[in-house]
Amino acid sequence: MHGSLLKQVWVILFGLHFVSALYSQSIEPKPDLTLQGTVSRADFMHYRELPFTVPADVTRLSAELSYTDKDKRTSIDLGLLDNERFRGWSGGNKSFFTLSDTDATPSYLPGPIRPGTWKILLGIPSIRAGVTSHYEVKIWFGHATDAPAVSTFSREPLRSGPAWYRGDLHMHDGHSDGSCTSQSGKKIPCPLYRTVEAANARGLDFIAITDHNTTSHFDAMRELQPAFDQLLLIPGREITTFLGHANVFGTTAPIDFRLTDTVPNFNLLLDRVQQLHGLLSINHPAQPSGESCMGCGWTVPNTDWARIRVLEAVNGGITSGPMAGIPFWQSKLDAGFRIVGIAGSDNHNSSTPPDRATSIGYPSTVVYANNLSERAILDGIRGGHVFIDTQGTKTRGMEWSATADVDHVATSAQMGDILGATTGHQVRFTLKLHDVKGASPVVLCDGKSVDWLPTLPAAGEEEQRIGTWRSDGAPHWVRVDVRGPDGTLWLVGNPIYLNPR
Are 335 and 217 in the same domain? Predict the structure, then answer.
């Protein structure tokens, strides 16, 4: 009781920061049901059914079996029957399973979670005479609007501690229009595992596989996540409409993509994503749209940009020219919208050579997050704590921050944050550069280059630049680009927002 009260006090004192830290730990929600009982020698080589009721509106069911006397050679196998059919048998090789309409732990079948009487199926292949073993089955009921406490496909963060994590947020495989070559050299729909292998070979920390409108790839992702326990797999899909494309991350629930037909306007689609705690990013918005690629450019009428949190500023290798997303993104920043710029390779062939744009991880989105979990990565993106590595290197990096002393109280901000600095107050900017020797930083205030800190080429692998600016009290966005010796754009930083309206 004392510990519970202490947690409540901490939540009040530290608010969302505490909640974020809480979710960064491996914390299981309280089970909705617990089934308990005993088995003895009389149960040897028999099966036992444990009925339980699944209520309406459940979209995911998870269960975990534990039991005593394993040291005395008791073994209890695990399986599941729904109210219509057999749903799986993991025997003694798994103590936990989860299943939904889209995905299931291997050994179990994905499919609808219909209300009614289901049964946990226990088998007892081994128990000695004179032994009575106690079992407990915890059952959790999930709903479409539940946000994952940690990750959809993993119960724990893959890595602990705050860091800059590198990933690719846009790619395709054989579940949509991704292709590669077969053993005999034929072009085939590319198996999802090849995409994951290529991402792992590049050294990425996370990926979102975003097949067009479908959710069929989630089952394969769940199967692969335990094997790739250093590469976070985030559920994603590319909502592909006639008026534009947008990635949605962080939910496996159905989303109707039929804009102009069953979905009359884009706000209704946004409402659904918000209800599901998903994160939506508008893709390649500056590309043309027409017969060659209907909906590739963003042409949704009356888009409410105040509701758009994320935009793909770099798609593939496009950083300049009429199809580049950066000018489109900056036009929205100029209009006063705080939109996070991210990148995606938009890879459609996992065999694309790694030194070529649109290969997996080229470009990369680099996110500062509390740990390597789906919840933490998406929260880092929502917060704008992001920069883009346009060539998907493993080590190039930047940290852009600002501080101001207002009314004798020091405040600070990093990329994505808001900093208040009234007229006359001095703002101190700090830029840290990593592995960009020979490259030059460019500070952009409202899209125009300013000389607020030194912009000479970096002489070493690690450098820090400091500059100051006296606030005029007006709203501004200030971000940094880093360009290589030949002028090529290497890094794209997200803004710090000064005195936003």
Answer: yes
**486 inside domain:** no
Three-state secondary structure call for residue 389? strand
Do 346 and 431 sit in the same domain of this protein? no
Helix axes 374-382, 2-23, angle to 10 degrees: 70
Q: Are residues 56 and 20 in the same domain?
A: no
CA distance 355 to 362: 8
Query: In Å, what is the CA distance from 70 to each residue of 133, 183, 349, 406, 414?
Result: 9, 46, 47, 63, 51
Q: For the chain, how many structural domains are there in total?
A: 4
Residue 87 CA to residue 119 CA, distance in Å, equals 10
* Number of other residues whose CB lies within 10 A of the CB of residue 359: 23
pLDDT digits (tens, 9 = 90+) for 22-67: 333 345 789 999 999 999 999 999 999 999 999 999 999 999 999 9
Task: With respect to residue 150, please indicate whether it lies within any of the assigned structural domains.
Answer: no
Residue among 57, 47, 37 nearest 86 (CA)? 47
Q: Which domain holds residue 73?
A: 33-142
Total-model pTM: 0.93
* Same domain as 364, residue 426: no
> CB atoms < 10 A from the CB of 13, how many?
9
Q: Give φ, ψ of 246 to 5 degrees.
A: -150, 130
Q: How far apart are CA 441 and CA 458, in angstroms?
A: 8
Write the single-letter amino acid at 42: A
Task: State whether 414 and 350 are in the same domain.
Answer: no
